[in-house]
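To the wet lab folks,

You asked to see what we're planning to order before we commit. Fair enough. Below is the target structure as tokens, and below that is the sequence we designed to fit it. If anything looks off to you, flag it before the synthesis order goes out.
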């Protein structure tokens, strides 16, 4: 068997081809559970890695359509640059492995006018499939 493998590698080198590389696959699902009241809302978010590559470290970016302003957050390091809100992994959970789900993260925010769900959510720049509850 080793001889056949070595022969295949040698043939690939002679013919100028290479063995196929293992493609890295990043994808994610996010559950976004928001409870809204006049002028504010609270969310609980979980992130599932549905790909084959680990997100490590990770940054979740949430893009809002309106004028939402975060007042506090938990289980992540939160920053806001309107219209975006970013959550950076906590030190005790620096990665999300394939097939696993993060601990819930969340925040409280205010808004004026009608509440609208975010227009997009990405994890390390990868668009996530979002389920709004």
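Sequence we intend to order:
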């Amino acid at each position: 068997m080793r001889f056949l493998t070595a022969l295949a590698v040698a043939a690939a080198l002679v013919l100028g081809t290479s063995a196929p590389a293992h493609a890295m696959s990043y994808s994610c699902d996010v559950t976004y559970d928001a409870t809204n009241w006049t002028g504010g809302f609270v969310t609980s978010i979980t992130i599932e890695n549905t790909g084959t590559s680990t997100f490590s470290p990770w940054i979740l970016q949430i893009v809002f359509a309106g004028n939402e302003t975060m007042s506090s957050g938990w289980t992540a390091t939160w920053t806001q640059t309107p219209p975006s809100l970013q959550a950076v992994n906590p030190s005790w959970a620096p990665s999300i492995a394939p097939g696993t789900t993060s601990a819930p993260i969340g925040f409280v925010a205010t808004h004026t006018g009608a509440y609208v769900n975010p227009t997009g959510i990405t994890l390390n720049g990868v668009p996530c499939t979002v389920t709004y509850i």
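Structural context that might help your review: Residues 99 and 131 are 17 Å apart (CA to CA). Residues 1-21 have pLDDT under 50 and may be disordered.

Thanks,
Computational group
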